[in-house]
Design goal:
Length: about 260
């Protein structure tokens, strides 16, 4: 028997695809040269100067490009640099966690995962299927609400005070099952319990008959950079297993954190 995860697909309108494509091409140009003038952008993309100016201005207004003074050339902006650094940092966490994850999977026989925060969600950036016949499938690439996952709640609990309100300006949260956390106040209570315990649980909150236990992986400042989780069919989500897995997860997280230090 095999437990699988259904991923949501999102459609998009074709109306703005041309502008998006040109904006992405502009980003590539900006990242490949010291500066870029409107005339150069228009020529490279075979678009009108007015269109090139509008796109570059939009990139500038959103931090992807900078302009030293009016009517001057554009250069790569801080936001694009931050995205690149974040991608490198994520890759560092994934590389540091791979061998410890393999050891954790082999020790427990269960599916193990590494996830990172993306706004109100978590992205599974690595996952190793368990070795048991009945197991949870690979979740790599899956995006789920942080409030409904063990790893997500472990990371949210490790954030600085006030960060929760910034990430969740509204009270209502997405519900994936009948037992999902559905309000910000409820999430606050969940996170306080996570802080006291030092680990987070997901008992069928993201998918029926699937449960998980997770802990945060933090950098030297104490900020969460990822979360490790053991995911299993609900039948094996017992008190004895949870107690054993929490010890293993904490030990594994410590190994990863030392590799990142």
């Amino acid at each position: 028997m095999y437990y699988s995860v259904m991923m949501n697909s999102y459609g998009s309108s074709s109306g703005g695809l041309s502008s998006v494509d040109n904006a992405l091409r502009l980003l590539r140009l900006l990242s490949s040269r010291p500066s870029l003038r409107v005339s150069e952008a228009a020529e490279e993309l075979s678009i009108a100067r007015s269109t090139a100016h509008r796109l570059l201005s939009t990139l500038r207004d959103n931090g992807f490009a900078v302009q030293d003074r009016s009517n001057s050339a554009y250069r790569i902006g801080g936001v694009l640099t931050e995205i690149g650094l974040a991608a490198i940092h994520r890759l560092d966490v994934r590389n540091a966690a791979r061998a410890p994850l393999e050891a954790l999977r082999d020790r427990t026989g269960e599916t193990v995962s590494l996830s990172v925060l993306e706004g109100q969600n978590v992205r599974f950036v690595d996952c190793l299927e368990g070795t048991l016949t009945v197991r949870v499938g690979d979740r790599t690439g899956l995006l789920l609400p942080s409030s409904s996952t063990a790893g997500g709640k472990a990371m949210l609990a490790a954030l600085p005070p006030g960060e929760l309100d910034l990430r969740y300006p509204g009270d209502r949260l997405p519900a994936l099952t009948s037992v999902s956390t559905v309000s910000r106040d409820e999430l606050r209570r969940d996170l306080e319990l996570v802080r006291r315990r030092g680990y987070a649980l997901n008992n069928q909150e993201s998918e029926q008959r699937i449960s998980a236990v997770g802990v945060a992986v933090c950098d030297v400042t104490g900020s969460p950079v990822g979360a490790l989780a053991i995911v299993c069919p609900v039948e094996r989500f017992t008190k004895a297993n949870i107690e054993e897995w929490v010890v293993l997860l904490r030990d594994t997280a410590l190994v990863v954190e030392r590799s990142l230090a």
